[in-house]
Write a structure and sequence with these properties.
alpha/beta, eight-stranded parallel β-sheet, about 40% helix, Leucine-rich repeat, LRR (right-handed beta-alpha superhelix), single chain, elongated, about 325 residues, Putative F-box domain, leucine-rich repeat domain, L domain-containing protein, two-stranded antiparallel sheet
Length: about 325
């Protein structure tokens, strides 16, 4: 009969005790062996690390909405000229009308240096929007015909940006304004347009809330003109944001804007050197305008160099160009 052994409150047989001792011994041995193995493994991994192969990713596996966002960041010119040629998927996406609700034709090239016709390319982009164009940007190109094509192709245009579009005339802008009743934001920077175009825009675009009408800036006390400021004050009562960089308005023009645009939240008149805020006008601007930029405020965040385009010096103001300005222009162009 096997002997019984007392282990705490339990009673086990003798051969079971021997088995327990053997298991305990075996477990201890395995534990030591495992620790030794782990130690050796750790030492081995420290001495000779295993290099991981780089993970390759396929752009075609990206979700469609992510790819669309990337392509939109590229810009309309590069989509039409490059991206749509990369693969069938990108070409298919480049024909999706939702890709062309916004057409951004910004470019860093002089039009004469480009190997392709920007105006023809822009028309092609407009066609792909299938009448749903909402936002368009034209830089350093454009004409009355193109602007008319834009207006005739959509009833939804809410934002338009025109930079150095010298071939867009006063008459062309006046006619197009009649077709843009939903326009809310307009940026006209460095152009041939003046007060007549602004009056037409004010009358035809009652929803306009943001206007940028920027030009070059020169200090000349004999060269002032409030025509654009008066046009804005008389026809754009719903404006919230106004930028008139380098304009020739005077204190009278600022007062006309303050009186005619009661909802104005931001007013930027940097480099408007004919404005002398003084105590009363400066106080009124500070009290009524949440974000006011005075004529001498820093221009670090202004997108364009105010001396980058000498053509704008010949802007046709009704007050005429003084001899001082002509001398400044000739000096800048290196003619003196």
């Amino acid at each position: 009969m096997p002997m019984r052994t007392q282990i705490g409150p339990l009673i086990v047989l003798k051969h079971e005790t021997d088995s327990i001792q053997m298991l305990s011994s075996s477990s201890s041995s395995m534990s030591n062996s495992s620790s030794s193995s782990m130690s050796n493994s750790s030492s081995s991994s420290t001495q000779s690390p295993i290099s991981e192969e780089p993970v390759t990713r396929n752009w075609l596996d990206l979700p469609r909405d992510v790819t669309s966002t990337i392509l939109l960041k590229v810009g309309s010119i590069d989509i039409l000229n490059n991206a749509q040629r990369v693969c069938l998927q990108w070409r298919s996406m480049s024909y999706d009308p939702t890709m062309w609700h916004t057409i951004d034709m910004r470019n860093s090239y002089a039009p004469n240096d480009m190997e392709f016709d920007l105006e023809m390319m822009c028309r092609h982009a407009i066609d792909r929007s299938y009448g749903n164009l909402v936002d368009i940007t034209l830089d350093y190109f454009g004409s009355d015909d193109l602007l008319t094509y834009v207006a005739d192709s959509t009833n939804h245009l809410r934002r338009m940006r025109l930079l150095s579009c010298w071939d867009i005339s006063e008459e062309g802008m006046i006619e197009v304004a009649k077709k843009l009743p939903l326009l809310e934001e307009l940026d006209i920077t460095i152009s041939n347009l003046s007060k007549d175009a602004l009056e037409a825009i004010g009358h035809c675009c009652p929803l306009l809330k943001s206007l940028k009408f920027n030009m070059q800036a020169f200090r000349d006390p004999h060269f002032d003109f409030d025509g654009e400021a008066f046009a804005i004050g008389q026809t754009m009562p719903n404006l919230r944001h106004l930028q008139l960089y380098g304009n020739k308005l005077t204190n009278d023009g600022v007062l006309a804007i303050l009186d005619g645009c009661p909802h104005l939240e931001s007013l930027d008149i940097r480099r408007c050197f004919n404005v002398n805020l003084g105590r009363s006008l400066g106080k009124r601007c500070a009290e009524e305008i949440k974000d006011f930029r005075n004529p001498d405020a820093p221009i670090d965040d202004y997108e364009f160099d105010h001396k980058s385009d000498p053509e704008s010096f010949f802007y046709d103001y009704s007050s005429g160009i003084s001899d001082t300005v002509l001398c400044d222009v000739e000096d800048y162009l290196g003619l003196l």
